[in-house]
Amino acid sequence: MTDNQQIFSGVLAPLLTPFADDGSVATDLYVEHAARVLDEGCTGIVPFGTTSEANSLSGPERMAGLEALVDAGIDPRIIMPGSGLCALPETIELTRHAVSLGCAGVLLLPPFYYKGVPDDGLFAAVAAVIEGVASDALKIYLYHIPPVAQVGYSCQLIQRLQGAFPGIVVGTKDSSGDWSNTAATLAALPGFGTFVGSEKFLLRNMQGGGVGCITATANIAAGPIRALYNNWDTSEAGALDAGVKSFREKLQSFPVIPAMKAVLAERLGEPRWRNMRPPLLPVAAREIQGLLQALVD
Amino acid sequence: MTDNQQIFSGVLAPLLTPFADDGSVATDLYVEHAARVLDEGCTGIVPFGTTSEANSLSGPERMAGLEALVDAGIDPRIIMPGSGLCALPETIELTRHAVSLGCAGVLLLPPFYYKGVPDDGLFAAVAAVIEGVASDALKIYLYHIPPVAQVGYSCQLIQRLQGAFPGIVVGTKDSSGDWSNTAATLAALPGFGTFVGSEKFLLRNMQGGGVGCITATANIAAGPIRALYNNWDTSEAGALDAGVKSFREKLQSFPVIPAMKAVLAERLGEPRWRNMRPPLLPVAAREIQGLLQALVD
Fold it and tell me: How many CB pairs below 8 A link A and B?
């Protein structure tokens, strides 16, 4: 691996976005939360992932949120904001803004409104972002999450993009939930910055030459995942892997985003954490008792 | 039907968006095109539908485009811009802008990033738009296009929204391609402004109490569709219906959006019309010979 390809590694949290009661972003809670997940074991943060309700935020809200994190003293070299939208001018604007703040990379969703788009069209979209941002400091992680976005980066397309834009297209987050896809990416692109989207696959990803995971769970339970990352090649790995998988299973039996927000609301005694932005909806504390118990266990 | 529910009727074109060679919106061609489709038989226009590559345009591009149409003298009372995005603040901004220009209605996509969202979440999203725009002049047409957006308005949800916001939620565009869904909507909501998304269903929609169609085809062949609309309850309807269905079948055998742009490029001798914005891609003139021939026949 070259240095370029090790910009980010370890356990990154796609940061939850807290909302005030009037529906605006609660910046105070946001900055606190970023510091907390880093304190709990994250090696970096991903503002504006799927877990962040990012696509429910406006462009100005995203830019203000990112600025608040950097202003609060979080090193932009460990921040990988999501910046991929449906409309290229807006994707370029957000990506340029992230680069201008010193963020060491961006997590790029493909344009996701039109379905069944050929790889040539997605290639053209990524090329247009790179041309539009026009900065040597730009490092792109391709965000593959077909269960939600429906549109994704095939392994072949990732290879094409990495080949066409070496040193710019430096990694991917595979949230397909399909280990065979991650395995194919690892095999096709040794030295690429391959993250998995769940700690369930972290051990296998590390064994296969990947660099870590970007996982929702790290918003409320980063410690054990970081321990697995730190010890993936030790004799402790099996037990650590079983532990994080068990908790992940529990978490996934709840609606993940509102459930994690409800956990934070309970843990911090801060009811604003329960707020969601439509179309997602909050859950009540009573609905997540099993999850709270699992966190104590 | 009340007057409220007859704001729009007939044949509306989801306007194609032309791009200059540098990728920006070609406003000159855009305004010309709007005037042309109205001249060819459209009763109204829908800037920023799926056919418009709307989700590939930025918010400022949409607002500037709509202003250009109104500035060119097109009556805003026959303009129904698409204004639904994933992020509520941006949906509210575009919707408010459309209302401020005097547009008689908006076509509202649901927030479409998160999949499997419960109806309660989509209800909350529409309610937030209505509350955020806060104008008695707001009239919403719910845009149901599950083949593309994946997220849609169920018939039950449409009933709930119409019941909660009478005089504001006044219609729908059903682009499901599933006549049984349109039939259910017509049956559940007599007097509602129900458009179909294809002229294939126009006759049945009119027979069932609907108000017209909003169809891509109207960008290049509005005349025959308008003739069917005008004569749906006459003895000519059968032959007119067969004619528009036949042409629609032909059109659908091509990639609809780039094929129609290529038709306009050929017809007008204006190569800029061939331009597409990624992730969609242009087609060459030679690829659409069969379509050009069908337009002559």
Answer: 115
Tell which residue, B197, B193, B217, has the closest CA to residue B42: B217
A167 to chain B, minimum CA–CA distance in Å? 23
- Cβ–Cβ contact A256 with B under 8 A: no
pLDDT tens string, chain A, 297 residues long: the values are 334 346 899 999 999 999 999 999 999 999 999 999 999 999 999 999 999 999 999 999 999 999 999 999 999 999 999 999 999 999 999 999 999 999 999 999 999 999 999 999 999 999 999 999 999 999 999 999 999 999 999 999 999 999 999 999 999 999 999 999 999 999 999 999 999 999 999 999 999 999 999 999 999 999 999 999 999 999 999 999 999 999 999 999 999 999 999 999 999 999 999 999 999 999 988 888 888 888 877
CB contact under 8 A, A121 and B281: yes
**HEC states along B9-66?**
CEEEEEECCCECCCCCECHHHHHHHHHHHHHCCCCEEEECCHHHCHHHCCHHHHHHHH
Catalytic residue among A30, A141, A153, A173: A173
CB-CB under 8 Å, B148 with A23 = no
CB contact under 8 Å between B90 and A58, yes or no, is: yes
Write down all domains in chain A, each with its CATH number in brackets.
Answer: 3-232 (3.20.20.70)
* pTM attached to this predicted model: 0.96
DSSP character for A25?
Answer: B
